[in-house]
Amino acid sequence: MKVCRQDQAVVLSRRCHGALYALMFLLLMGVGVSTSSSQTYDPLSSESADTAGSDESKAQVATPPEVREVLGDAQLQGQERFRWFGFSVYDIRLWVKAPLNIEAWAGRLFALELTYARSLEGQAIAEKSLEEMQAQESIDAQRQASWLSFMQSAFPNVEEGDRLTGIYRPDGGAAFYFNGRETASTDDADFARLFFGIWLSPDTSEPALRRALFGMKE
């Protein structure tokens, strides 16, 4: 009986540590782009986001005002929900004027919209974004500091239902919006390529999510 109790204690301890790790990560992680709980724009309901690839689910999604302003008659190429240890973190959508080629996305105008499912600090979103960018390519210390400062100004704290939207310009650069309001913009082509590469690059840490954004079925 003593051995059995010890084994049970070990299992319980491991489960507790796993749960705590997941919760701590959610407090620290975040990568994002957009949605407004105070505006009339009504994003896709959380129940529908799991059917990301279906034409029916795409038809239910209204184009965000900031996306419509820049892209005009935009279409939704793909969408997916990002989860961590079973927790919903955000829904992400790829808006385009015409379908993007998975191998040549950097040459086209598009928008990524993130609708958050929980509260996250802007500082954590910026830091996690930089970490994911560094995973794609080596970034010198000076640019790390500059880009982190820029993202801290671009990404405010978010709560459930808030949206962060990023517009990628093929001529180099990006603009960011919080619930439809522009927060920051840059002409730095390297920053834009690596930032949007967090989701779209072959080196992404979430390849299944990448395929879903490009509308590719498993």
UniProtKB/TrEMBL annotation:
List the residue ranges of the region (Disordered): 40-64
Pfam annotation, one family: Chalcone_3
Q: Which UniProt keywords apply?
A: Membrane, Transmembrane, Transmembrane helix
Tell whether Cell cycle is among the UniProt keywords.
Answer: no
Q: Which residues form the Chalcone isomerase domain?
A: 111-215
The UniProt record lists the keyword Transmembrane: yes
Membrane-spanning residues: 20-38
Bias category Polar residues: which stretches?
A: 40-51
Q: Which InterPro entries match?
A: Chalcone_isomerase
Q: Which domain of life is it from?
A: Bacteria
Q: What is this protein called?
A: Chalcone isomerase domain-containing protein
Protein's organism: Neopusillimonas maritima
